[in-house]
Amino acid sequence: MKYLFFAIALLPMISNAQLKEIAYTDADKKLDGFVAKPKKALKDNPGVVILPAWMGIDDHSKQSAIDLADLGYYAFVADIYGEGSKPTNSKEASQQAGFYKKNVADYQRRIQLALDELIKQGANLNSIVVMGYCFGGTGAIEAARSNMNIKGIVSFHGGLGKDEKRVTETINAKVLVLHGADDPFVPKAEIDAFQNEMRAAKADWEMVYYANAVHSFTNKTSGNDNSKGAAYNEKAAKRSWQALLTFIKETL
Predict the structure, then answer these.
(1) What is the DSSP secondary-structure string of 116-161?
(2) Rounded to whole angstroms, how far apart are CA atoms 138 and 131?
(3) Rg (CA), the chain
(4) Contact in structure between 131 and 156 (CB atoms under 8 Å)
C-alpha cells in the first residue's frame, strides 16, 4: 500500500482549468486572448488579467492563467499586439513594445479591453488584479497609473520608467513590484524615479528584490546565463509567484 501511495504522489497534478481562446476587438483590429475559468470560483468571483512579455502571448502567460484558475480565480491573458502583429524575433518585439511604451494611451486602452473581456467571462468587475511579465509588467504599472477599476497590480521584472513630462496622479490600486536585484535593463535612476513617483502618488506600494536574479527571471525559456542580462532563476521564480498569491489573496 505504501508503494502505491508513493507512486500516486509522484503523478503530476492534473489541472481542472480549461484554457479557451477568446476573440475580441479594438475598433477594426482583431485581438485573440485566452481565458481560464475556475471549476470552483472563489467568493465574489475575483479575476486576474495577465499581460505577456514583449514576444506576446506565450506558454508562460497561458500557464499562469491555468494555475490561477486552479486556485479559484478567473484569468485572462491579454492580446496587446493583435492578430497578425505578433513579433517573430527580438527586433520586432523591441519595435512593437517600444511603440506601446511611447504611446501609453494605446497600451492602456488594450489593457482596459482585456479587463472588459475578463468581466464578460464571469469575473467581478470590482475584484480584479492586473499582473504582467517584463513588457507586461510595465503595462501593469500603466494600469495603476491610469486608475482603472482594479484593486491592485503586480509587475514581474517590468520596466518602471515614465516620461517625466507626464503628470503624476494619485494611484488608488495597490502596487507590488517583483524585481531582479541584478537586472541590467532597469537602471538605478529609473528605480529611484519610480519610487519617488509612488510616494508622490500616495500609493500603497511594495518593491521586492531577488538576489542573483536578472531580467526575465520567471521564464524558463530565458536560459540560465545571467551575463546575458535575462535568465531564469528558479528560486526567484518560486518566491515571486508566492508573493503574487499572497498579494492577490490579501487584495481580493
Answers:
(1) HHHHHTT--TTSEEEEEETHHHHHHHHHHHTT-S-SEEEEES----
(2) 9
(3) 18
(4) yes
Position 18 scores a pLDDT of 83
The residue type of 150 is I
Give the model's pLDDT for residue 11: 39
Section 129-133 average pLDDT:
98
Is 222 a residue whose pLDDT tops 60?
yes
CA angle 138, 238, 175 (to 5 degrees): 35
Per residue in 41-77, pLDDT (tens digit) is 999 999 999 999 999 999 999 999 999 999 999 999 9
The alpha carbon of residue 21 and the mean position of all alpha carbons in its chain are separated, in whole angstroms, by: 18
Half-sphere exposure of 87 (CA within 13 A, CB side): 19
Q: Which three cell numbers stand for residue 64?
A: 499562469
pLDDT value at 150 more than 50: yes
Give the pLDDT of residue 16.
Answer: 67
How many residues appear in the chain?
Answer: 252
How far is it, in rounded angstroms, from Cα 66 to Cα 159?
25
Which residues, in sequence order, are bridge partners of residue 43? none
184 backbone dihedrals φ, ψ, rounded to 5°? -80, -10
**Which is more confidently placed, 19 or 14?**
19
* pTM over the 0.90 mark: yes
Q: What's residue 17's pLDDT?
A: 76
- The grid cell for 252 is 481580493
Alpha carbon 24 to its chain centroid, in Å, reads 20
Give per-residue burial for 44-68: e unless 16+ CB within 10 Å, then b: ebbbbbbbbbbbbbeebbbbbbbbb
Residue with cell 508503494: 3
CB atoms within 10 A of CB 120: 13
- In angstroms, the CA 237 to CA 235 distance is 5
Query: What type of residue sits at position 148?
Result: M
